[in-house]
Each structure stands twice: as C-alpha cells, then as structure tokens.
Amino acid sequence: MEAAAKSGEFFYGWDLLYKTVQADVNKKADLLVALIHFLLTKHYSFRCVGIGDDKTLPEEEGSELLPDSWNDDDTKYSLRYVHDKVLYLLLGHITEDALLVNLMDINTKKVSNICLEPETLVAEVKGSIATLMPSASEIVDRYRKELLDPVFTGNSREVTTQTTAPRASGSDPLRIGEPRRPGSYMPGGFEPRPFGFPDIGRGDLDPLGRGGPGNLFAFPSRPNMGPGVGPLPRFDPFGPADPNVPGRGPNPDHMRPPNWDPDYYM
Fold this sequence. Notes:
Blueprint: H1 2-5, H2 14-21, H3 28-43, E1 47-51, E2 76-83, E3 86-94, E4 99-105, E5 111-116, H4 118-121, H5 129-132, H6 136-153, E6 185-186, E7 189-190
Antiparallel strand pairs: 1-2, 2-3, 3-4, 4-5, 6-7
C-alpha cells in the first residue's frame, strides 16, 4: 500500500471524484475529507450510504460518490459507509487550526482518530492532486495507519502490557524481580517446597542477594520462617558476656566439636 501510494497509479480515479465535488469545495479541510473518501471507496471497497450519525445499517448498497450536502456544515462532517454488511461512521470536527477525524466500527465499537492541519497539508483548493496536496502520498499513509488499521484491519495501536514467557534455560540473574515458582518465599506468606524441603540456602547462590535466606545468614529476625522450616543458624554474640544482663552467660559451645575443621566452607 505504501509503495502504491507513492506512484501515480494509486491516485488513478481521483480526478473523476474531484470533478464531482469541485464546485462544492470551499475550504481546505474539504479536500482532506475527500481524500479519505477516495481511499475508503477506491482502495478498501467501502460504499458511502449518506450523511449523518445514524447507527442503523441501511439496506442500500451505497455509492463511491460523496453524497449531497456532505460539507454543508462549516465545522463538522458526518459520513456513513458500509463494508461487508458492517456500518462505519466517519466523523470530522474543525477547530481553529486542525481537523479531527474519527472512524468507528458500529459492530465492534472500535474507534480510531487522526489530527490534521489543513493549512499545512493543503496548498490550493483548485488544481491537480499534486497542486492541491503536495504530500498526498504521506497523508494517505497516515490515513491507513491511524484510521484504517486500528479499526478496519484490527491492528490496534493501543498501548498494551505484554507478558514475556520465562526463559527455558533459566532465570537471568540481572533481571528485576524473580518469577514466582512453587516453594518460594513470598511477602506475606510461605509456600512449602515440594516434598517438605525448606527453602533455606538458596540466597547464598544468588549474586544479587534475592530469594530465601542462606546458611551464612547470621542475624535471623525470627526463629522460624514458617510451617515446615526449622530454626535458622544460631548467632552467638561477640565479646565477653555482660554480667549485668539477666539470662546472658558464657557460651556453652566453648569446646571445639569433634573432628572440627576450620576450612569447612573452603
């Protein structure tokens, strides 16, 4: 479509349409609406079934011509089209320096819109297509992308949130957050690991320090993480015991355990 819009063949038939409305054109916005009509009827097989905003599907097949009084209102346009027994409304509103156009599918209620500047895009109101709208090819491309694609072809341009599937080869340690999986510790609760194994030690393997607590964690905030999880490794305070603090006495583990190896974690 884009390649065709840049060739003279794309606008074949425009001259005939323009001759039928030339006497009615009195403002630059009229030509922009006429170009939309040409695109719909010539290249998308739409048929115009009159003016207004009636949402009732008519019985007539419609025409490739613009109807009488299509531009009688100085501030707005309202045209009705049919394609494959589906009714579409083309509504335009003229502001001080812009033309706002909406295309609506009555069945799906999808609506697209485009904002155009007639004074910038239309050079003359009389003459050939190149004289009237020097950038006609670019205007047509915008019509297709901003008006037709979101409504007629279903290629909606609305911002949506896409969910990326987890990588099959494992989690990326640099990604923000971590996929929730069975048996992981989540804020506000604990989900037991399969077969009752506790979620202890995984944090030691995570370079960013995420996840459950590790075996090297020396400052537990509570003795138990939750159901099925045993006490975390005990921390013995540094320095001599303070006799003024009740319940604080010598460390009972003052003797080395049998077969003690200082290189346990090496």
